[in-house]
Structure formats: structure tokens, C-alpha cells
What we know:
A: 733 residues; Aldehyde Oxidoreductase, domain 4; B: alpha+beta; DNA polymerase, domain 1; 2 domains
Amino acid sequence: MSAATKRSKDHGINRRSFLHASVTAAGGLLVSLYFNRASAQEGASAAQGPPKINYPPDAFVEIRPDGKIVIQVNRLEFGQGVQTALPMVLADEMDADWASVVPQLAQAKDIYKDPVFGIQMVGGSGSIAHSFQQYRELGAKTRAMLLSAAAKNWNVGADTLRTEPSVVIGPGGKRATYAELAKAATAMPVPANVRLKNPSEFRYIGKRTPRLDSRAKCDGSIKFGLDFDQPGMLTAVVAHPPMFGAKVRGFDDADARRVEGVREIFQISLPRGSGIAVVADKFWTAKQARDRLKIDWDTTEIAKEDTTALWAKYRQLAGTKGLSALARGDESALDKIASANRIVAEYEFPYLAHTPMEPLNTTIRFDGDRAEAWVGSQFQTCDQMAIAQTLGLKAEQVLFHTEMAGGGFGRRAVPDSHVQREAAEIAKKLRGTTVKLIWTREDDVRGGFYRPMFFHRVEIGVGTDGMPAAWRHVVVGQSIMEGTPFAMMMKDGIDPTVAEGITDTQYNLANFNVSIHQPKVNVPVLWWRSVGNTHTAYVMETLIEELAERTKMDPIAYRRKLLKPDAKKLRAALDLMEAKSAAWRQKLPKGHAVGFALHESFDTGVAVAVDVSIVNKRPKVHGATVAVHCGLAANPLTVESQFQAGSGFGLSQLMAKGAITLKDGLVEQRNFHEFVPPYIMDAPVAVDVHIVPSTDPPTGCGEPPVPVISPAVANALSKLTGKRYRSLPLVEI
Amino acid sequence: MAKFQLTVNGQRKEVNADPTTPLLWVLREDLKMTGTKYGCGVSACGACTVHVDGVATRSCMLPISLLGDRPITTIEAMANDRVGRVVQDAWVEKDVVQCGYCQSGQIMSAVALLKETPRPTETQIEESMGGNLCRCATYVRIREAVQLASQRLK
Lengths: 733, 154
């Protein structure tokens, strides 16, 4: 996903290239890069955005007789605030009364596909970046149609009219509300071109706007996918393979069937191996029955992975050159630098689980010639297609509702839609009954689709000026894209997400060589919030701070000196962070240290300074100052909130029990007592966020908070202990 | 299966359930009160926090047969609770929520804390809220909202 937006530039594919979904003859979903020839012929530059589609306002906006304005949101809300921000954008251009706006998560339909990716999805921090222009135009067109309707009613020119929130005002103080005009407006032609506001005219865009879903999320009334209910609905759980790809050889369900309330127990095939589905009247019944199954698993054919063995293999691979991901300058320059002036650093990053708070679930009702599904989905197009295929239907025969989701962090963006396929296998057997599949937390923690393990080996030759004169970087880790439809985005066998954050570094590194190894391992892997940047920013920013220290330069000045001249966003963020953190940095209490990090991802530049001490043998982050360049911030309150909380999320990597490990093919962690994300005492106490003022096109804010925080904290810890932290998680400091 | 009499948010309820069923699932599936959330099932994340006899309690491991006649209070009753309403308002004013899935449990823990300790220190906040996981990590704003609610509870 990050790759889709970012790498397309590097690989010489126009940024307007977008994913095109279709069904292959074999029945698999094909998501291919689709090059938009018509717009390419315009000779446009890569910065001009996606191809023009004339979106019909009536698919997005409904004005009800009571004045309520219902706005369809074309992507999942799972915390990032899009259900507030996109309606703000549309309502602003429409001049709608904000108090009357009601957002709705759109069903799966072609019209709601992401304008850049070409499938209905959210990812790559694209919520605002991709739909800002689209929603502005939708709002402006709706307003224009309302004006036309009023002009016709009053028999005056539309240019004599103006609007105030949800009201058209005409000559002589004539007034008509949007609700009064709505019906007539739908008969007006949809204008092809509309004037958009100047930023100085914005009513809502750029203003700190509270979330629309706050109250319902505080009083228990909001319904997440897991809360979905219908009369007669049944609940299913699945006994999943204990090792990835294991198959059921045989099973005894006699005990399980004695649990009162059990309806069906049957074997199902899974994208990896097979399992036993238990369908019951309630969750607890289903789970108890599952616990009583006796299953004989066939694990003879599968690789039994072991993370200790994998580290040895990865370390060995890192000593050799891999596929070249970037080659700049003279690679042998490094070998000419005396060993005293070289740094050799090796880093380890473990598997990480996403563990969104709402456990994975999908509800489906299959009625033979049609189906209905309720899913907190990041990839509606793919998930709808997967359900349809499993049920032998066409995608349009599956009415697909997007449900509010309790977090995702990448886990609901799964190319093979395995949870939806599993739910559809079950629904197929229970035709005419709505069935909700629930993954328990144990299913989730042990279920794979982790951020891959990565090993880095970096050799840096330091020049006489203390700046890097040569840099050789080898990254070892599984490809996320290989074997999925996203493999179409790989070039020369290279998954661009493996070394993103290194290959596109904004530092001016001479004699810079990056190569990668992508070993095949029997552990399913997936993008984890900020994808490759989770580990690459950690390596880059701890090494840069080490280099600055070695040459006794101020780490901010060192970074500024090393940045490319055109690293506009990072320079602005660095300057702002320096200014805003200066006061507290100058009066750090005894036992505290400051650490910095600077990183651009998803076209957003971020600089951070953290105030850290050691409390109970753990890092305590007393405060953080974050500066962000994200272009125009559509909702600065959401941006602030994303960066505050995203800093806490990013610290997942440093938690003592923050790793997924495998032994003899089995995942060793089961639940939150063994895979422990940050709790309140582990997160920063305070985070002040500063946004670089800008009217540039908005860029992502969901993922960019994550990469910077852990290297900044590690840098501060190094100052306190004199140690380097190159193996995560931080089991001890 | 057995019949159980419960007092939930001041109302008498009768349910027919397996005695081992945790209170969480009785609330969610038998009483259709889905504000209380399933997050882990092992009392490790706090998403299922309710008040039993006024004490913040994880409902995901509490078998219904062990409840007796102790009164249960859930997030659905907080809007009509003196402290609950103040805490919810503080949460909204501070724009705390992101995905929001853990926030019922966060609010139930905060209400229990403030009823016991109206002026909590930072350490007391960390201790009382320390069992409530927020995967979005909205903790900075949770701290601020607890403090705001504390100021308003006179």
C-alpha cells in the first residue's frame, strides 16, 4: 500500500497508475496495475493526481426533508477519523450546516472505489490524500445543483444567489433551505466543472473539528461489526490449524456435540490448510464446544518454523549481497575506508501482531442466489469478491455492508480475505441463516499475518568530516506482496515495502548501496501500520544519531547538514520541532535525556524530540514534541490526535513482551498476557503536536506517526546507558 | 442451562444460560447490551469492564453463577449516572476516542476511580487505568479527560 503510492514514482510508473480489480478465469482475484493511457497522453506530470471521474453527487449526498444531510464515506472508519474529515470536506464546499451532517459508511460499490487505488479500500494513509479533491468537487457540485434549483424557482440567474450553511439566499433576501430545494435539485444537470473555494473561504476544512462518532463511542451505543445482531443469527468459531497450513486428518466431535446449543460441527477448507467450524446459538456455547473437539492434525508436509533458527539464517544471509534495491556511486568506496572509520551494525526486528481491539469477525447470510455480508473491511472490493467466489456468486450478488471497525493497523487489509472466505464457507453450509464468525483473541494472536521479522546489516564508512562517505545496507525479511495479487507491484523480484524508508531516504548518502534477501518462511505476513518504515526508520535514525554523536555534532544540526537540499517537508518539520522543543530541552531534569528522530513516509515529514528517563528498568517517555508537514491538514484536531496516539502505538516495538516468536512451528504467544502492547504507563505522558502551515495537497497522517517514536526513545536511552539498542523488542535496557 | 436473576442498571432481568457463561456474554448476547466489549477473554485488556457492586470488574471471566444478587452497572447506564455523565462529557470534550472499541471499558474504569478518589494523582490514574488496553493508544487524551472530569466533580 505504501508501495502503491510511493514506489510507483520510483519505478517510473505514473502516479496515476491505479489498481484494477477483475476476476481471472481461474476464479482468483486479480489486482493489477492499470495504466491510464488517456491521461498519460495529456503529458501531465506525476503530481496531478488520479484520472478524472465525474462522480454523481446523489451517490454520496442525501438531503432529507428534515434538513439532515447524509454523506456516504467511501472507506472504512477504524479510528483514523475519516468519518468526520471527509464529510467536513464535502460539507465545506457544499456550504452545508455542519450540525445537520450525518456520516454513513458506504456499502461496497464501484462508485466508492478509492480514486487512486481503483479498488474500494483504505490503506497507505490515503483517506484524505486520495479523496480530498473528490469530496471537494462533490460538495461544490451539490451546491451548484441547489443553486440551479433555486434560480429556476425564483426565475433569476444562479449568479445572483449565494449560500449560507444549508440555505440559498436570493435577491431581496429570498431564502430557501437545502431541504426545500433538494427534490428540484436532483433534476438539475450535474455540472462537469465547478469552482472550488479558495482556502481563505473554508468554513470547516483546516478547523479543529471534534469527531462525529465521539458520543456514540462513549455511551456504548455505537455498533461495531462484532455487535451486529439479527433474530435467529448463529455464531461460529473455527478450530484453526495449530501450525500454518496444517490439515485435519480426522476429528472426534462427540464431546463437543453434547454442549447444549451447538447446531453444526463440520470440517472446512481454509486458504492455508483446513479447520473445524463450530456453529452454535451463542459465542460461549460455540467456544466451549470447540474446546472439547479432539482433532488429529496432519503437519507432516509443512515447514515447522522456529524464530531462533530463522535469526541464524537471516544473520548469515545478511553477510551476503542480495537483490540490488538501490545502487548509487561506487560500492567499493566502503572497502577503501580504514576499519577504524567504519561502523558495522546489525539489527533484529521480530514478528509483530496487529491485535486490533475488536477481534476479527465477519457476518454472512447466504440465500442461494444472493448473500448479505457485514464486515469491518479495509478492502471492500476484495472481501466482497472473496465471499462471492466462495458462494459461487457474482460480486454484485453480495450486498456488502461496511461496519464500524475497532482498529485495524493493517490487519483488516488482507489480500486473500481469509476471514471472509472462512465465514463464507460456513454460511454456505447454513443457507438461509445469518452466521457471525468470531475469531477469539487467541485465534488472532496465533493466526499469523504478522509484520515480518527483519534483520539488517549496515556498514558505514565515515568521512573525515564525520559525515557518511559510503553506506552498504543489507535487509533480510519476507516479502509481503509475493504470492498475493500485489506482486504486480514488485519489480525485478523486489518487494518495495522491504526497504522503503532506506531506498527513498531524504538524506544525501554517497556511495549508497542497498540490497535485500526475501526468504520464504511458512509464516503469513502482512503490512503493519507504516509497513517497512516500522523497522527501516529505526535503523536509519539510530545510526544517524550515532554518527552525530561520534563526530560530536548536535544531532539536529547533523541531520540538517545531511538532508538533501530539496527535502522540503523534513526541513520544515525539523526546524519547527527544534523551535518548539527548545525550551524543555534546555532544562531537562537529572536522569533524563533527549532523543530525536526524523522520517518521511507516505509523503508526510515528521520530526520528533522525546524526553526519556528510566523508571522501573523501563523507558519512561515524559513528553514528546512532534512537528508534522502533511500539506493542508483537513482536520488539525485529528492530525494532532493521530500523532499523539500513534506515538504510543509506535512504542509497541519496544515493549519487553512485544514480539511474536515461534518454536517448532508453534506460535508461543496466545493473548495479551504474552504479547503485550503499550498500556497507559508505557505510553508517552504528553505529546505536543505542531503542524507546519501549508496549503500543499494533504498527505497521510495514519501511518507517519509510527516510525519515528521508537528510534527517538532508543536514542535517548543510549545517552542514558551508553548502550546501543539494535535488537527489538527491548527485553531489558 | 439454568435460570439466573440479575440486577442490571437497576432493572431485574432473568436469563437462561449455562452457569459457566461469563457475565460479558450474558450482557451481549442474552440481554443485547453490546456496549460492553469482548477484547481478550482473559481479563488482560479491560474492554469488558463493568461495575459489580460498584467495583470495576472484568466481566469476561466472571461466570454468571458466581454473581449472586450483586448489582451490575454497565456503560449503558453512565449517561444517567452523576459521575458517569461528567466522565463521558469530558471524553467527548477532549475528543479522546479513535477506533473507540476500548472506550466503554476505559470510561467504566475512570468512573470507578473518580467515585473512590475524586482527585487522583498521576500515579493513581496510571494504576487504576493500567489494566485497560487502548490499541490506538489514546492515553494522552485519556489522562487529560480523567483530569478534566476530576476538576468538574465538586
